[in-house]
């Protein structure tokens, strides 16, 4: 099941009930996002994607929007597609397919926005004068989401196959679901087959950047897919200005200008205007705030606006319930925190200052007369968006390939929801990338997917991290910000266009081919630039790798090529438990044009690394909890060689159950926990007790089974993995799957109890056993004991199991 695409709604339309679409004018550079990659220059050269078919798999499209052509089928901008599901599909009921991908519900606006970003053209007297990246490309919509809920994998896979069969040149997918591993996903082989047939698959990597590295979504996770990260727009494109009654003004964010019937008196929640305004008073979380507001507001519907902080501790539900009681129809949200991912902190603080400076008894009144739109620079402009998911894949395939503008993007929205919206997400960066691909494809119809992708990646422009004078990690930006003009005008080819160096302190030497495809000779200079060194639990650092080249300068005639060998060596790493990733760029410069080959790797061998972190004294930054495996009985904490277990269920059941606590600090796709006899002959990697100490405890009276990899056992406590498990696993064991068999985000993997209500071996007999934990080493096939890191725990003696 793939969840519904989630984006950040930067600003909704001022009204959801516009009878006609707006026509907005002003000074805003609404198409600035095109200039960020030189798309505007290509448009001026009449390169607009003509003759290229782009299939979009999404929530459907309001193709009746005039900026999207006003119709569907041959001769229209949205010329092909299919509805696989219908309005009422949620992912859990039966789809109702049909030939028409039209969507009119506001919740289906995601696909309309994506379509507009890629190919819209605002007509005269409608909209803002917006233009999509490839306005002359032929677009197709394959609807896989209803008006609510998610979509089953088989529906999305069918849409991908249908789009390929319908002759698409590009499939754009602003959707996805987190999957820890490339292996086992049905999307990976299908993406490969589609690309092998000459069709590009361009997919969002997700909006989980705050979860840390190794958090990318499928299908963008597929090695063959062009996975996309998000860059913040250089401007916030729609601001308007209201006049106040003290000789000043207030700039506010809205897609469309707010059209009040008359002046509005502003009432800060919890304070009125008689006392200084504070964040605590204005957050709307305290019921007393609303009581105070109720006593002040007299005509909420026509003459009042309520001032609230941006939602933090309280939800919109709390706000909406109280606003309804007051009959308030206008709300002004503000933030005065410049570090939050929101704009206009300065006007918000100014508003509070103006309110606090008013003399007692004087109202603060706003008049919304101006309808002229203007823009303001984004503090995070031209940097990787904080939400953009961070690669690489768990198998260390370089992701994302590149990044495109996806933060605060103004584009079309269903007519029923105002016609336009500003959204943020890798969902918005994906159609931008697909549009640029279409521009290049229209100029190079005979080029393969690999050739176009390689050119887009090698001509990208590496960008710096926000507020730090170092390049963002390749795990965030890939090759950098897409450069449409640079790709079309390129006169050299670099291959490969990325290097995934995997896990090694001494990665193998790499070969890069440089080819001159121009009509004159060129001199090339090779160099290296390090990018941010990233760990799971610390900020970015300048711990760069080094690079040595077989040649650093050479001249190539027209059509000539040469091979440059490069040896990249990461800096020594003493804390592999922090899951570090190093990265950087190989630069190929000629005639002022710079081409890049991004690379990344893990600076140690995962197979040989510590999988249980025993020593926390040398940790970098924040520490893990104590992660040596342990058994905890009620009232005791890791009591050592012997743990008596009184499982008498006369009291609360959970109070009697023991726990096994462990954290695995390296990626593993198979983790198994078994109960083995006290005197097992198995020799583990680590002991959870003192082996010389002998304790006489009777064995359990349960039958001893052959066990996994010939280790006799009583039964399986738990198993965690992905995809297909090795066939030698006991089919009668208790399977307890978890969604993420690794600890990249730093959370405890499992706290597993021994007993369950329906009765397992621990509720049927007394006697002793030992817990045996085995973790498959990265890169192993799991067929021998040496493929696992193991821990054998202390004796657990079940004294009583009565209920």
Automatic annotation (TrEMBL):
Residues covered by the Peptidase S8/S53 domain: 49-474
Gene3D superfamilies named among the record's database cross-references: Peptidase S8/S53 domain
GO molecular function, one term: serine-type endopeptidase activity
A Pfam family it matches: fn3_5
InterPro entries per UniProt: C5a/SBT2-like_Fn3 (IPR010435), Peptidase_S8/S53_dom (IPR000209), Peptidase_S8/S53_dom_sf (IPR036852), Peptidase_S8_Asp-AS (IPR023827), Peptidase_S8_His-AS (IPR022398), Peptidase_S8_Ser-AS (IPR023828), Peptidase_S8_subtilisin-like (IPR050131), Peptidase_S8_subtilisin-rel (IPR015500)
Family: Belongs to the peptidase S8 family.
GO process annotations (BP): proteolysis
Domain called C5a peptidase/Subtilisin-like protease SBT2-like Fn3-like: residue spans: 500-604
UniProt-recorded name of the protein: Peptidase S8/S53 domain-containing protein
Keywords per UniProt: Hydrolase, Protease, Serine protease, Signal
Catalytic machinery residues: 58 (charge relay system), 110 (charge relay system), 427 (charge relay system)
């Amino acid at each position: 099941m793939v969840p519904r695409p989630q984006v950040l709604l930067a600003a909704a339309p001022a009204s959801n009930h516009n009878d006609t679409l707006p026509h907005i004018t002003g000074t805003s550079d609404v198409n600035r996002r095109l200039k960020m990659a030189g798309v505007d220059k290509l448009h001026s050269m009449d390169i607009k994607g003509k003759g290229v078919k782009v299939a979009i798999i999404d929530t459907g499209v309001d193709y009746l929007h005039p900026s999207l052509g006003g119709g569907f089928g041959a001769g229209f901008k949205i010329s092909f597609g299919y509805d696989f599901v219908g309005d009422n599909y949620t992912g859990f009921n039966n789809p109702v397919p049909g030939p028409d991908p039209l969507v009119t519900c506001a919740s289906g606006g995601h696909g309309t926005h994506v379509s507009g970003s890629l190919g819209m053209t605002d007509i005269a007297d409608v909209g803002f004068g917006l233009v999509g990246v490839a306005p002359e490309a032929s677009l197709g919509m394959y609807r896989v989401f209803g008006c609510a809920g998610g979509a089953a994998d088989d529906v999305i896979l069918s849409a991908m196959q249908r789009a390929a069969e319908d002759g698409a040149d590009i499939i754009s997918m602003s959707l996805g679901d987190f999957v820890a591993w490339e292996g086992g996903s049905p999307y990976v082989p299908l993406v490969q087959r589609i690309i092998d047939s000459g069709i590009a698959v361009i997919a969002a990597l997700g909006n989980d950047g705050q979860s840390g590295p190794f958090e990318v979504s499928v299908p963008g996770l597929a090695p063959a897919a062009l996975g996309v990260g998000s860059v913040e727009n250089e401007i916030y494109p729609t601001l308007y200005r209201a006049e106040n009654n003290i000789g000043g003004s207030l700039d506010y964010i809205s897609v469309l200008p707010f059209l009040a019937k008359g002046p509005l008196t502003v009432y800060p929640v919890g304070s009125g205007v008689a006392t200084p305004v504070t964040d605590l008073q204005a957050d709307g979380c305290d019921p007393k705030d609303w009581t105070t507001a109720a006593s002040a507001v007299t005509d909420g519907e026509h003459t009042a606006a309520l001032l609230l902080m941006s939602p933090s501790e309280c939800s919109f539900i709390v706000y909406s319930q109280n606003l309804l009681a007051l009959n308030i129809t206008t709300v002004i949200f503000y933030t005065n925190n410049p570090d939050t991912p929101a704009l206009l902190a300065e006007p918000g603080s100014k508003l509070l200052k103006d309110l606090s400076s008013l003399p007692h008894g004087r109202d603060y009144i706003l008049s919304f007369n101006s309808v002229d739109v203007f823009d303001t620079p984004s503090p995070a402009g031209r940097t990787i968006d904080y939400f953009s998911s961070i690669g690489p894949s768990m198998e260390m395939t370089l992701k994302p390939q590149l990044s495109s503008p996806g933060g605060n993007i103004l584009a079309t929205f269903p007519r029923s929801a105002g016609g336009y919206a500003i959204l943020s997400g890798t969902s918005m960066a994906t159609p931008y990338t697909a549009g640029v691909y279409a521009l290049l494809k229209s100029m190079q119809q005979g080029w393969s997917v690999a050739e176009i992708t390689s050119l887009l990646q090698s001509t990208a422009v590496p960008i710096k991290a926000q507020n730090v004078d170092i390049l963002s990690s390749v795990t965030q930006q890939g090759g950098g910000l897409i450069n449409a003009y640079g790709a079309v005008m390129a006169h050299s080819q670099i291959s490969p266009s990325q290097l995934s160096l995997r896990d090694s302190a001494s990665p193998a030497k790499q070969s890069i081919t440089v080819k001159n495809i121009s009509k004159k000779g060129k001199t090339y200079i090779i160099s290296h630039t390090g990018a941010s060194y990233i760990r799971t639990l610390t900020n970015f650092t300048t711990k760069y790798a080094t690079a040595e080249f077989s040649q650093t300068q050479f001249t190539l005639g027209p059509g000539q090529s040469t091979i440059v060998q490069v040896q990249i060596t990461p800096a020594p790493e003493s804390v592999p438990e922090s899951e570090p990733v190093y990265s950087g760029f190989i630069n190929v410069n000629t005639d002022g044009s710079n081409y890049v080959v991004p690379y990344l790797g893990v600076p140690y061998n995962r197979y040989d690394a510590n999988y249980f972190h025993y020593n926390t004294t040398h940790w970098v930054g924040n520490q893990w909890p104590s992660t040596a495996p342990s058994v905890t009985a009620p009232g005791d904490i890791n009591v050592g060689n012997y743990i008596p277990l009184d499982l008498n269920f006369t009291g609360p059941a959970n109070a009697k159950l023991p726990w096994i606590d462990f954290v695995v600090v390296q990626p593993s796709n198979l983790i198994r926990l078994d109960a083995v006899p006290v005197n097992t002959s198995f020799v583990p990697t680590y002991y959870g007790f003192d082996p010389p100490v002998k304790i006489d405890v009777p064995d359990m009276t349960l039958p001893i089974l052959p066990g996994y990899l010939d280790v006799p056992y009583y039964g399986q406590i738990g198993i965690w993995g992905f995809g297909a498990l090795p066939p030698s696993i006991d089919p009668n064991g208790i399977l307890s799957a978890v969604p993420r068999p690794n600890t990249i985000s730093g959370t405890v993997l499992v706290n597993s109890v021994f007993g369950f209500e329906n009765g397992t071996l621990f509720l049927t007999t007394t006697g002793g056993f030992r817990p045996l934990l085995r973790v498959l080493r990265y890169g192993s096939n799991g067929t021998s004991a040496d493929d696992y890191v193991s821990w054998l725990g202390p004796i657990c003696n079940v004294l009583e199991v009565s209920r």
